[in-house]
Write a structure and sequence with these properties.
The complex is a heterotrimer.
Chain A (H helix, E strand, L loop, with lengths): L3 H4 L10 H13 L7 E5 L2 H5 L2 H13 L10 E5 L11 E4 L3 E3 L7 H10 L9 E2 L6 E2 L6 H4 L17 H6 L4 H9 L2 H11 L11 H15 L4 E6 L8 H8 L1 H15 L3 E6 L4 H16 L15 E6 L9 H8 L23 E5 H13 L1 H5 L2 E2 L2 E2 L1 E8 L5 E6 L4 H8 L11 E4 L5 E4 L9 H6 L8 E5 L5 H15 L5 H18 L5 H17 L3 H5 L2 H19 L14 E3 L9 H5 L5 E2 L7 E2 L9 H5 L5 E3 L1
Parallel strand pairs in A: 1-2, 7-8, 7-10, 8-9, 13-17
Antiparallel strand pairs in A: 1-3, 3-4, 5-6, 11-12, 13-14, 15-16, 15-17, 18-21, 19-20
Helix pairs in contact in A: 8-12, 8-15, 9-10, 9-12, 11-12, 11-13, 12-15, 19-20, 19-23, 20-21, 21-23
Chain B lengths: L7 H5 L9 H12 L4 H11 L3 H10 L11 E6 L2 H5 L2 H12 L12 E6 L11 E3 L2 E3 L4 H24 L1
Parallel strand pairs in B: 1-2
Antiparallel strand pairs in B: 1-3, 3-4
Helix pairs in contact in B: 2-3, 3-4
Chain C lengths: L1 E5 L2 E5 L5 H7 L23 E6 L2 E6 L10 E3 L3 H17 L4 H9 L21 H10 L5 E3 L6 E3 L14 H5 L5 H8 L7 H6 L1
Parallel strand pairs in C: 1-5
Antiparallel strand pairs in C: 1-2, 3-4, 3-5, 6-7
Classes of the chains: A alpha/beta, B alpha+beta, C alpha+beta.
C-alpha cells in the first residue's frame, strides 16, 4: 500500500472557488498526452483475487527492461472494478482501447511486445462473441457492456481511485462546486425531489422526500443534523456498493457533502462493512485528499460551508444495515434495532435528525445536481427513475456488475447482458433482494425490474443482488439457506424473529428430509405472516419472503419432497443417492482417493462403485470426476 | 499471541475517551493481539467509561470479535448465496472433517481457525475461500487440500528452523 | 388530553403515554411479558401487538412503545393480532417448557399445545432483558447484560463468570416474568465489592 503522501501525485492545492477547480482540472488535462500509451489494469476484488496485482507487477518489470523511449513510455493505471468479473483479470491498452481478458502474468511479455512495441493485438486474449464467434477489440463493443447504461459506474474502471486529480480531471466535484456557488440548500433539496430518485438500499423511499422531512424535523428540533452513508452492504451476492466505494470513492463523498450542504450538517459518518478493507482504505485516501484540496473540512471551496466526516468500520453484523441498528452501532453499542416508532429523520443518530442513504444513492446525487433533475427523471420509468446497478451472480455466464435503466425486463438482464445459464437451458428463477427478497420464476421473466413491479411479484429490489438459479438449484434448499443466514444474523431481540426463523427453518429441514404435509405448508404461511406482522425491524418482517415466494411459485417442488420423497433438483442430501455410470467411468481412481468415507471401490481401469449406505453425500466424487461419470438420482 | 509491536497503552491513546469509540478500540486490540482478552476489554471499558458488560455485549454481538486466541492461519469459507449455490457448504463440511474442528473453532494445535463468512462480495469467483486474507477463487476440496498442505509444509520448515535456532 | 378508540371504546390519554398504558388505565387487557413500568420498554416479546386501522389501511404495532395520538383506531383482538400472539405463545411453550408462568399465560389465550419440539426441557428464560434493564436503569450497576446475538442471545455476566459488581439486591429476580432469574442469579453473583448500604447512600 502506498502511504498517503506518495499516493498523491500532485502537490495539494487548496481550492478557493469553483473557478479554481476548473482551472486545476484544465491544467491536469493539459498535462496529459492523449496519445500516450496507457495500461489499465482492473484492481477490483474479483480481478485481484485472480491475480491482477501480479499482472501489474509483471507489466512494471517487463517495461523496465524494454528501453522504451521515455516519451512513449506507457503509464500503468490500476482502477476499480470493470464489472465483467467472470473474465478477469482485465487489462485495457490505451489509446487503442484494446480489451484483454483473463490475462495472466505470463501473457505480459507478449502484450508488451506485440501491442505496445509493435501496435498489434494479441488475439488470443481478446473477447470472442459467444454467438457469432467474432473477436471483439474494444470494451464498449462487447454485448455485456453495450447493453448497459453506465452512469453511476461511469468513472469506475477509468480513474485511479487513489488519485484525486484523476477524479477531478473526470469531472469530479463539479456538482459540489455548482451546488455551493449557484444553488441554495433549498434548491438542492427541491432538485432531489424532482429527480424522483428512490433509495437504492432496499425499501426505495424517495430520497428528496427524506431530505425534505429532515428539513422539517430540523425546524422543530434545531441542529445538529447528521448525514450518514450506509456502506454496510450485507446482502449475500451483492457487491455494487463495494465496487463504488473502491472504484469511485469521491463520488460517494461528493454526494455526501452536497447532502450535508442541503441540510446544514457539519458532521457525517460513513459506516462500512469490515469485510471490505479495500473500500475503507480508498475512502480514507479520498477523504484525506479531499481535505487537502479544500473540498472537505473547514470552509469548503471558500464558500463558508464547513463539513467533515469519519469512517466507522462495521464489526460483522448484517443487521447493522438496518438504519436504527446502524445508529446504535455508531454509538458504540451492540447493533440492536431501536424499538421506537419515530422516523430516523427526526430521531436518528444520538437522537438527532439524521439522513441515512446508501452508497449508490449518495453516488447518484452529484449526477442529479450536475446534469439536472429533468435529465435524471427522464431515465428509467416514471415511478422508478434513473438507473440501477445489479450484481449478477450464480448460474449465469457473464457474472459481474451491471447498470441498466430501471424498468428493463429480467430477461434482458439475465439473458441478453448475462448471456443466460451456462448449460443453455432457461433459468429456473432469479433471486432478488437478498434475504429479504424473493424468487422470480422463469414464467415472469418479462417482469420489468423496478421497485413496484418486483414488490408486486412478491420480491423486492433490495440493494440489487440478482442470483440466477438453474434446474439444479432446489427452492427448499434456498429457503433453508436464507433462513439459516438470518438466524445467524438476527439480533435476537424480538421473539417472532429469534424463535420464528428457527422454527420456519426446522419445518423446511423436515421437507428436505422428505417429512411434511400440506398442513405444514399452511403453517409455514401462517407463521410467516406472524413474523411479518410481529417482528420489530425490517430484517425480521421481510425474512419470510424467500419462503413465501418459493411456496407461491414452486409449491409442487415442496410437495414433491414430501409426497414423492424426491428432490427434483437433486440437492437435498437425504433424498438423493450418488451413483457411478459404468459406461463413463474410466477407473482413474481419482474419486476413490478423494472420498472421505472411503466408500468408493473398484480396480484401476474398471468401473467404480459407490457403497450408498456408507456414502456421506458430500459430492466430492462428483466434483473430482473429470469424465462426468458420477450422477445423482 | 504476542502483541505485534503495539502496546496496549498506545492503542488506548488513539481515540478520545468517549463511549462511541468502544468498537474502534476493540477492533484495534483484536488487530494487534488476534483476540480480546478479559484484561484488554476491561482496560478499554475503563478508559472510555462504560461498564464491562457493554464491552462484553459488543464483543459477543459482532461476529468479527474473538475472545480466545485464534489459530495461526484463518480459513474463511464464504457462504454468500452464489457460493452456497456452487457448493460453499460442502467445502465447510469437508474442511471440518479434514481439520477435525467445527466451523468457528480452532484446531487443538492452534494451527488453523475455521470460520464462515456471509459473503465477501467476490461472487464471480464462487465458491471462494479466504485463507489469511488470500482469496482462493473457484475453490474445490482438492485445491484447498493442496493449498493447506503448502502452508503446512512451510510451517514444517519454520518449525525446524526454529528448533535449530 | 388525547382521545382515541380501543376496540371501539373511547379512551383518554395524556400526551406521551403509550397505547398499552392507556389500555391498562382503562382496564383493557393486553398481554405482555417483557414490559415492566419500572424500566424502559423494549418491545421485545411482541405479545402486546395491536392493530391500527384507518379505512382499508391497517398495521400492527407494539402497544408498549406506540405513542398515543388523536383519533387512533386501535384493535386488540383481530385475526392478525391473534395470529401473532398464538404463534409467539406456541413458540414460547417450546422455548421455555419449564416455566409455569408462560404455560399459564398461554393457557389464558387458549394455547395449550405446541407443534414445536423443545431443545431444552429445563429452560425458563426467554431473554426478554428485563433483568439487565433493571440492573442498569434502576440499580445503576450493569452487573449483567444481554450477551451474544440472535439464537445464541442470553443473559449473563461478562465472560460467563460470577461478577463482583453484583450486590445481590435481587431486583432482577423480582422483575423476571418467567421465574428464570432465580437460577441464573446464583451463577452471576460473586463477592460484591459494593455493599447495598453504600449504594443506597449514593
Amino acid at each position: 500500500m502506498p502511504n498517503l503522501s506518495t499516493a498523491l501525485k500532485m502537490d495539494p492545492w487548496r481550492l478557493q472557488s469553483g473557478e479554481e477547480l476548473n482551472r486545476l482540472r484544465a491544467q491536469i488535462i493539459a498535462g496529459r498526452d492523449p496519445q500516450r500509451p496507457e495500461i489499465i489494469i482492473c484492481h477490483g476484488t474479483g480481478c485481484l483475487a485472480n491475480g491482477s496485482d501480479k499482472v501489474a507487477k509483471a507489466f512494471r518489470a517487463a517495461l523496465e527492461g524494454k528501453g522504451i523511449q521515455a516519451k512513449v513510455m506507457p503509464g500503468i493505471k490500476t482502477t476499480g472494478c470493470h464489472g465483467f468479473c467472470s473474465r478477469g483479470p482485465l487489462v485495457i491498452i490505451r489509446p487503442q482501447g484494446l480489451f484483454y481478458q483473463r490475462v495472466k502474468p505470463k501473457d505480459v511479455e507478449e502484450i508488451v511486445d506485440h501491442t505496445l512495441v509493435h501496435g498489434k493485438a494479441v488475439e488470443r486474449l481478446l473477447y470472442k462473441d459467444p454467438s457469432s464467434g467474432d473477436l471483439i477489440f474494444n470494451e464498449g463493443e462487447i454485448p455485456f457492456y453495450k447493453l448497459q447504461q453506465r452512469i453511476v459506474l461511469h468513472n469506475i474502471g477509468k480513474i485511479d481511485p487513489t488519485d484525486i486529480t484523476d477524479t477531478i480531471a473526470a469531472g469530479g466535484y463539479q456538482a459540489l462546486a455548482k451546488a455551493l456557488t449557484t444553488m441554495t440548500p433549498e434548491q438542492v433539496v427541491a432538485e432531489m425531489e424532482k429527480s424522483g430518485l428512490r433509495g437504492r438500499g432496499g425499501a426505495g423511499f424517495p430520497t428528496g422526500r427524506k431530505w425534505r422531512s429532515a428539513l422539517q424535523a430540523i425546524k422543530k428540533k434545531g441542529r445538529p443534523v447528521y448525514v450518514v452513508v450506509n456502506g454496510d452492504e450485507g446482502d449475500p451476492g451483492a457487491f455494487m456498493d463495494r465496487t463504488i466505494m473502491e472504484g469511485d470513492p469521491h463520488a460517494v463523498l461528493e454526494g455526501l457533502i452536497i447532502g450535508a450542504y442541503a441540510l446544514g450538517a457539519a458532521q457525517g459518518y460513513l459506516y462500512v462493512r469490515a469485510e471490505y478493507p479495500l473500500a475503507i482504505r480508498h475512502l480514507e485516501i479520498a477523504m484525506h485528499q479531499a481535505r487537502e484540496y479544500g473540498l472537505l473540512g473547514e470552509n469548503i471551496l471558500n464558500s463558508g460551508f464547513s463539513f467533515d466526516a469519519r469512517i466507522n468500520r462495521g464489526a460483522g453484523a448484517f443487521v447493522c444495515g438496518e438504519s436504527t441498528a446502524l445508529f446504535t452501532s455508531i454509538e458504540g453499542k451492540p447493533g440492536n434495532p431501536r424499538p421506537k416508532y419515530v422516523r430516523s429523520v427526526e430521531e436518528g443518530l444520538w437522537g438527532r435528525p439524521t439522513v441515512l442513504n446508501n452508497v449508490e444513492t449518495w453516488a447518484n446525487v452529484p449526477l442529479i445536481i450536475e446534469r439536472g433533475a429533468d435529465w435524471y427523471a427522464g431515465l428509467g420509468v416514471p415511478h422508478s427513475t434513473g438507473t440501477k446497478v445489479f450484481s449478477l451472480v450464480g448460474k449465469v455466464n457473464n457474472v459481474g456488475l451491471v447498470e441498466v435503466p430501471m424498468g428493463v425486463s429480467m430477461a434482458h438482464i439475465v439473458e441478453q447482458i448475462g448471456g443466460g445459464v451456462p448449460d443453455g437451458k432457461p433459468f429456473k428463477a432469479v433471486q432478488t433482494g437478498g434475504p429479504s427478497g424473493g424468487c422470480i420464476p422463469y414464467s415472469l421473466k418479462d417482469t420489468p425490474v423496478d421497485f413496484d413491479s418486483l414488490t408486486a411479484a412478491g420480491s423486492m429490489m433490495g440493494s440489487g443482488a440478482m442470483i440466477v438459479m438453474d434446474h439444479t438449484d432446489c427452492v427448499v434448499d434456498v429457503g433453508r439457506y436464507f433462513l439459516r443466514f438470518l438466524e445467524e444474523e438476527s439480533c435476537g431481540k424480538c421473539l417472532p424473529c429469534r424463535l420464528g426463523l428457527t422454527r420456519l427453518r426446522e419445518i423446511l429441514d423436515n421437507f428436505s428430509q422428505g417429512v411434511g404435509s400440506e398442513k405444514d405448508i399452511e403453517d409455514l404461511t401462517s407463521l410467516s405472516q406472524a413474523i411479518q406482522d410481529g417482528a420489530l425491524c425490517a430484517l425480521g418482517s421481510s425474512a419470510p419472503n424467500p419462503v413465501l415466494t418459493t411456496i407461491r411459485y414452486f409449491r409442487e417442488e415442496y410437495l414433491a419432497h414430501v409426497q414423492e420423497h424426491k428432490c427434483p433438483a437433486g440437492v437435498c442430501k437425504d433424498l438423493i443417492t450418488y451413483g457411478i455410470d459404468p459406461e463413463r467411468c474410466t477407473g482413474c481412481m481419482n474419486c476413490a482417493r478423494q472420498c472421505p468415507a472411503q466408500c468408493i471401490t473398484g480396480k484401476k481401469k474398471t468401473a467404480h462403485v459407490i457403497d450408498t449406505h456408507k456414502c456421506l453425500r458430500c459430492g466430492i466424487c462428483k466434483e473430482t470426476c473429470k469424465f462426468d461419470a458420477v450422477f445423482i438420482s | 499471541m504476542e502483541p505485534q509491536g503495539v502496546q496496549i497503552d498506545e492503542i488506548m491513546e488513539r481515540y478520545p475517551d468517549k463511549p462511541e469509540y468502544l468498537i474502534f478500540l476493540l477492533q484495534d486490540i483484536q488487530a494487534s493481539y488476534g483476540y480480546i482478552s478479559a484484561q484488554a476489554m476491561q482496560l478499554a471499558c475503563d478508559r472510555i467509561g462504560v461498564p464491562l458488560t457493554q464491552g462484553y455485549s459488543v464483543a459477543t454481538f459482532y461476529q468479527s470479535f474473538r475472545l480466545d486466541p485464534s489459530g495461526e492461519h484463518e480459513i474463511r469459507v464464504c457462504l454468500g448465496t452464489a457460493c452456497h449455490l456452487k457448493g460453499g457448504q460442502r467445502l465447510v463440511e469437508d474442511l471440518e472433517r479434514r481439520l477435525n474442528v467445527e466451523a468457528g473453532g480452532t484446531t487443538e494445535d492452534l494451527r488453523f481457525t475455521l470460520n464462515t463468512v456471509n459473503c465477501v462480495g467476490a461472487c464471480a469467483l464462487a465458491p471462494v475461500v479466504v485463507v489469511d486474507n488470500e482469496y482462493q477463487p473457484n475453490a474445490t476440496s482438492k485445491k484447498l487440500e493442496k493449498y493447506l498442505k503448502t502452508i503446512d509444509a512451510l510451517a514444517g520448515v519454520e518449525a525446524k528452523e526454529g528448533a535449530h535456532a | 388530553m388525547i382521545t382515541f378508540k380501543i376496540d371501539g371504546q373511547q379512551v383518554k390519554a395524556r400526551p406521551g403515554w403509550t397505547v398499552l398504558e392507556t389500555a391498562r388505565e382503562h382496564g383493557i387487557e393486553i398481554p405482555t411479558l417483557c414490559f415492566h413500568p419500572a424500566v424502559s420498554a423494549s418491545g421485545a416479546c411482541r405479545l402486546c401487538m395491536v392493530e391500527l386501522r384507518e379505512g382499508t389501511w391497517s398495521k400492527l404495532v407494539a402497544s408498549c412503545i406506540y405513542p398515543v395520538a388523536e383519533g387512533l383506531q386501535v384493535h386488540t383482538d383481530t385475526e392478525r393480532v391473534r395470529n401473532v400472539r398464538r404463534w409467539v405463545l406456541e413458540m414460547l411453550l417450546a422455548a421455555c417448557p419449564a416455566s409455569p408462568e408462560i404455560a399459564a399465560l398461554a393457557a389464558k389465550y387458549d394455547v395449550v399445545r405446541t407443534r414445536f419440539t423443545s431443545h431444552d426441557p429445563d429452560q425458563t428464560c426467554m431473554v426478554c432483558g428485563l433483568c439487565a434493564r433493571v440492573c442498569d436503569e434502576v440499580v445503576g450497576l450493569s452487573a449483567i447484560a444481554i450477551v451474544d446475538r440472535g439464537v445464541h442471545k442470553r443473559v449473563g455476566a461478562p465472560f460467563a463468570k460470577p461478577t463482583d459488581i453484583c450486590v445481590a439486591c435481587g431486583s432482577c429476580v423480582t422483575v423476571c416474568p418467567t421465574g428464570a432469574m432465580q437460577a441464573i442469579f446464583d451463577s452471576v453473583r460473586g463477592e460484591p465489592t459494593t455493599a447495598l448500604t453504600q449504594l443506597a447512600a449514593q
